[in-house]
What does this fold into?
Amino acid sequence: MSVAANHLDGSRSVLSLITGVGSRGQVGETVAGALARRGDTVLVVSRSEDEVRARAAELVAAGYDAHGYACDLADAHGVSQLATRARQHGERLDALVNLAGGFGVTGPIADSDPATFDRMFRINLTTAYLATRALYPLVRTAGGSIVFFASEAVLDGQPARNTAAYVAAKSAVVALMRSVADEGREHGVRANALAPSAIRTATNEASMARDTHYVEREEVASVVAFLCSPAAVAITGQVIRLRR
It folds into this structure.
């Protein structure tokens, strides 16, 4: 589902793909909206077909160029098919935003569940790795930007009690980002990671303490849009902390 982008000067539409754009009231919805409003053609991705189609339809109804694709980002074959679909919009991808992921408490390390450990790595690291692996050739052609999502918890001095799997997975995301940044530098590809504290989402507001200091979704989207713009051409390999 889409509407045609209006580029009167004949310039090519900027193409951005954002993962983790499912439920309403989450970060992915806000990031996709921010990129669409600045004129990007946005490809939004979620595991839930119903949700991602709804988010894309909302953008189209607002007059933006949007396409929704359902994909299990932890499945290599499915992600390869996603890359094939992305190529239908051109052989260039200006921005890849790896937003898919999730949080989980594992408890004391000696009592933790290995299945939860595996899940944290699958939804946070494997998804980012497979999406980057499959879509990197398109980003390289464009000399584009890749944004990863880590967490404030990976930074020195931050508490990590009872969240070993989540912190380990997000730390691995940072390591992946740095590797991609080093590899991409010669091709003009930029890779950076955001390390936010708690973000105000519908899920977090329902589950976290009432006195939590939130980073607003719009603030996150603003930083993502900057990193995916020509203004950030000299910024790569950085972990950017977002905190209020």
